[in-house]
Amino acid sequence: MPEKALEIQPITITTPTPNSPMATPPPPPPCRTSATPDSPIMTTPRRRALHRLTGFTRSLSCRRKRAPSGRRMCPVDQQDDFQQASTHCLTSYYSVFVVRLAIMIMLAILIGMLTVLTWHFTKVYTTKSLDTLAYGLRYELLQRPILRMWNILNSTSEITTAQVKLSEYVLRKYSSPVTQANPTSQAQLVELYETMKAVTWSLFQSRKALNAITINYRNGFVQAFHRDHRSNNTFYIYSDLSNYSISAGMYSRQGWNDQSIKGNISAIWYREPLDPNTGIKIGKAKPIPADDLINIAGLSQVPDGAATWDVAVSKYTDSPLLSAALPVFGPSNQSIVAVVGVTTALSSVGQLMKELVEVHSGHIYLTSQEGYLLATSTNAPLLANTSMGPELVMAVDSQDHVIRKGARWLQAIYGNKLPPGHVVHIEHAKLGKEDYYIDSFFLNLKRLPIVGVIIIPREYIMGKADQRAFKTLIILISASVCILIIGCLCILILTNGVSKEMKLRAELISHLDARRRAEASNNYKSQFLANMSHELRTPMAAIIGLLDIVITDSSLASEHYASLTQIRKCSLALLRLLNNILDLSKVESGKLVLEEADFNLGQELEGIVDMHSVQCINQDVELVLDLSDDMPETFRGDSARFVEIFSNLISNSIKFTKSGHVIVRGWCENWNAFEDSGKSLLEQKKSWCALRSKFKQQTNYVKKTCKKENKMILWFEIEDTGCGIDPAKWETVFDSFEQADASTTRKHGGTGLGLSIVRTLVNKMGGEVKIVKKDSPGILMRLYLLLNTPSDGSEQSCQVDFSKPTVVVLALGGSVGRGITSQWLRRNKVSTIEASDWKQLTLILPELFNPTNECNGSEEQPSLSEPLEEEQPLSSEEQPSLSQTLKEEILNIKAMKDQVFIIVVDIGLLDFKAGIWLSQLDYLDQFTGKAKFAWTLSHNSSSMVKAELRKRGHVIVVNKPLYKTKMIQILEAALQGRTLEIEICSSDGGASTNKALVDCDIADALVPLSLGDKIERLINSRPTRYQDFINHHIEFTDQNPEPSNSSTDSENQSQSSPKLPDNGLESGRSKSKGKEIASTSDESQNGSPTSKRQKMVSSPPKEKGSSSSSGCDEEKLRGLHILVVEDTLLLQMVAVKILLKAGATVNAVSDGLQAVEAMTSMIDSLVRRNEAVKKGLEPEPLKSPPYDLILMDCQMPVMDGYEATKEIRRMEEGTRMHIQIIAQTAHAMSTDREKCLAVGMDGYLTKPLQDKITVETIMKHLGRSID
Amino acid sequence: MDNVIQLQKKLVDYKTSLFNEGILDDQFTQLQQLQDESNPDFVVEVVSLFFKDSERLFDELAKTLDQQNVDFNRLDAHVHQLKGSSSSIGAQRVQKVCILFRNYCEVRNIEECLKCLQQLKREYYFVKNKLETLFKLEKQIMEAGGTIPVQ
């Protein structure tokens, strides 16, 4: 079986041709070095080479496949699991291929085995059984002629024996008398011969097959019967009896030889035909030559007295004859009296053979041991006529070519040395072109061994089987090939699905990989941003810290201080930006939570505008803030984010605006009113349609949730005149890192983060931001925010009392800002005249004021009330350049009575080249008495100008840009300064309890870009001390002549009552430059009553200050009871010491809770006492005097200062008390100050406490004078 | 008497040098001015309180920074205290380091905080040394029967 397999395999395996799917497998398996090294596939070298080739390409592709995987592997450890997955995929990928291959091989083997087995069973077993059968057949076939031969021989021998026995009997009967008495007589002899003849005839007659029977007597007499088979005649042959003396012949033993017979030529032989059946003589005897017809067995043939066999050849038969000879012994058994010979033709054997061969094909022949043919199954002659007469033919010379070839083949193989027994069985003898079976048998007869050979063509026996086997094989092979191919195809198709799935899985995994990598890189990005901002924040912290250090340095000039403050602010802004980057990622991940705290929206916006105005002025861009009046002051929301939004938007606008203006507009709508207004809005702006539907969706929800809160929709527009944005990019600019034009980064810088932060924040605040179409160049960004307003605080911001007719001359450079301001003023019923440059101003001013010297010379009194009413024609003649409308306006103004003139002058209108501005100021000074001047400074206005302004008494100074709040401030300062005069005259107004705290001193206001131009209102519970306060206030300001002192603490506020803003401002100024003013006050000519009063008021302090400059710090606080709240013992000690030294009674506690407790007891006792007083009872004496003031530390354990203050303020509600709380804080930042004020503190001090400032501040807050 | 004058001169020089070098500032002068007959050892008291306080705070700071998860708020509070007390006695340089320290606290940079702590300690011992010398000089003058010169 193995050999068979080997034999089969090449066939089955090589059938898949090289271009079959097996040879070019689509998926490369893993480098298969020893997959099936000893598999039958490898048997053919071609396959091996092919395999090696494919293996090589596979290994190549393997390496190619592995290389990227290795690359993929190296970058990160965290992708191990993924890597595993991918390798797993790869291996499974390969395993599928291996499995596919294995299945194919198995299929091939299976089919091969089936084929082989089937073939084997069909062919080999058949062949074997056939062979067995054939062998039997052959044996039988051969056996039969041999048996016949044997029979012939036997019968011959029997006949011979019988003849001998009969002859012996007859002879004995006749010879005995002869031998005993006389020699036999002739008659007796004849009788003997006659008897013999009859006996012999009967024997002859009984055996038809006999050819002849001869009896050769001793005396030479011959009797013979002969049967000629060809002519079917029977003859009796006898020799002439007369020639023989029976006795002589019979008894002369020695002379009895063939010679005597044959040599007896004279003997005459007769032949008489007989009736073959009856033996009756039917013809005349004819003499024939002796020994002519038949062989007469003579004595020579039985020399030893035993029977002999011989094959003879007769002239008259064409087949060899078998002759047997036996001697007939005499009665004594010692002498041979006659020889009987029997001759049988062998042709009957041939006949039988022929018959056999006719049935089964093939050839049979018999030969003698020497190789002479005795009988064949063919008609080929067995005798050859030679010169010597007919002779037997050798088998190798037989005329039948099959017999000849077979004999020759046998001879060639065995030569003359036949195997013992002469038995040969050969199954494949190639004779000529055909296969034959050759079998030979040996029949060992004494003196005549016979060899029988049978030659049967293989085709006869195995022909069908071979044919069948071949056909089966062909069918099997073709079927198996078909099955193999189909199977392989099926496997391919089936596994193709699997491999497709594998491919998909691999793809999926690679996608997963890609996704993970993308996520990782995103994480890296976030990580990077976080790290970077951390790394950037650290140096920023150092910068800010160092700035703080420098700022605390007391020896700074105010300019340096200002710059440092600015640097600090910028640093903080930068820090905030860094935080923004974090915020953005926070927002993106949804982690940002908006703060909910009240904030002053207007203030924040103003702060932003102030901040950016510096940049604007540098760029020649006007930054204008235009908020509608109905805008509530406070909103609840995240102020920092709000600021961020606008800061980003404004800076973005400024960045892209080279010249022109940037306007920030703001208005608001009530949420509930929105639905109605929404319609009109919708009509206006189709693009906001979606927004409205969104609103509607929100409405229900919002209404439910925000019923209590007053929800407002705040609309803002930021308009610029910059380069604009392509409308196609209006949406995309809000994406991260997106800029409208790629080149802008180079030109303008920036990261493209700003707008994206804006959008996320605006969306977070429930709003939307959008770029809106506008006609002029530039862009108009519109956004809305949903913010809550605290329900109580819906007061309007504009509370200036414009009862007096007021005239404002706006001499401002920026046309847009001026326009907006004048519009607002007009809306508020304030007459406004605009002037865009100096020249126009010089035209307007005389127009307004000049008429006074013409008509009412007597009326130039300081009252200022009715100076200008007439002389329009003149003025119109004088100022031909003024436009008609302006003139009309001026006329209208002049028609009014008791106007207040306020002239707002942009410092930029002054011409600073050469000394012109001084003369310009001189020019303006002539109007000082008639009008109030307010100046708008820019950040780069030189201190010399400021000093000059101060010197000339222009005390109302604001920083650019001018917006509503600042305008109100100016108006209040100007108008209330005027009312103040009246109130001073009435000595004690007392009605108004409002006190305005001008949060900034003027020194601060003069600092460029200060954001602090704000007016805070605080409730003062001690209106009665008003008068004292003024005096004291002015006094103490003069005690600090050094400007540096005031500049160190920005919280060193000047406080003034709203009735005294002018004075307050001025005193604030005098604080820093008090001496200067005092010394130069003479220079302010044309002093109006106001300025005179100011001089007057400010001079006494000067004297006082000089007299008590250093000495009288002590006892300033005498009689005051102060509570010091401070946790650090050391600081507490110092504070207490400072206060003690100043003469106050001091109690100290170490945290907020104790302070609250102390206050509680105090308030309780006070309340009780008040009640007692009310009831008319004698008030019980207080255990300790009530505290006048608390010095509160902000950062404390247990309860911090802010909490404590809130608590105290809460307690005070309902009582009419308001204890002054002054914070002491280490933070020098404005936010801290705001925070302090927000929780209800009245003022604050910076640590470390400085005795003078401390005492001053306390006194200021208590409105206490030295007495 | 010469001795006293010499000592007084030395004291003045020393004090001036302290001010010039920026080790002390006006706050210290103020402290000295607060001292009067009713409380003749006020400065020494306050300063020794400062020493005591500071050393306690250093311990706290070191402990806080030593923890696995540094509690920056606590750290900040401690530094804040130190800053307050140092600024109150006029130990300017200590105060400045405190300011830096607090900024790093805000950014949560431990390394810088540790550096700051080291620097803080250096500055503290420096100023402590100086102040002790100053007090020693003053004491010597007092013992010698002189008065402490007022600036």
Structure commentary:
The complex is a heterodimer of chains A (1267) and B (151). Chain A has 1267 residues and is an alpha/beta fold. Chain A has 34 helices and 34 strands. In chain A, the strands form eight sheets. An eight-stranded antiparallel β-sheet of chain A has the order 5-4-3-2-1-8-7-6. A five-stranded antiparallel β-sheet of chain A has the order 10-9-15-14-13. In chain A, helix 9 runs antiparallel to helix 10 (558-588). Chain A is rod-shaped, with a radius of gyration of 76 Å. The N terminus of chain A is likely disordered. By secondary structure, chain B is mainly alpha-helical. Chain B is 80% helix and 0% strand. Chain B has helices spanning 2-20, 26-34, 42-66, 72-89, 92-107, 110-143. In chain B, helix 1 (2-20) runs antiparallel to helix 6, helix 3 (42-66) runs antiparallel to helix 6 and helix 4 (72-89) runs antiparallel to helix 5 (92-107). Chains A and B meet through helix 9 and helix 30 of A and helix 2, helix 3, helix 4 and helix 5 of B.
What would a concise description of this structure say?
The complex is a heterodimer of chains A (1267) and B (151). Helix content of chain A is 50%, strand content 17%.
Q: Compute the gyration radius of chain A: what is it?
A: 76 Å
Task: Please trace the helix and strand order of chain B, writing H or E for each element.
Answer: HHHHHH
Shape, per Cα inertia axes of chain A: rod-shaped
Number of helices of chain A: 34
Biggest sheet: strand arrangement of chain A: 5-4-3-2-1-8-7-6
Oligomer: heterodimer
User: Main beta sheet of chain A: strand number and arrangement?
Assistant: 8 strands, antiparallel
Number of helices of chain B: 6
Beta content of chain A comes to 15-25%
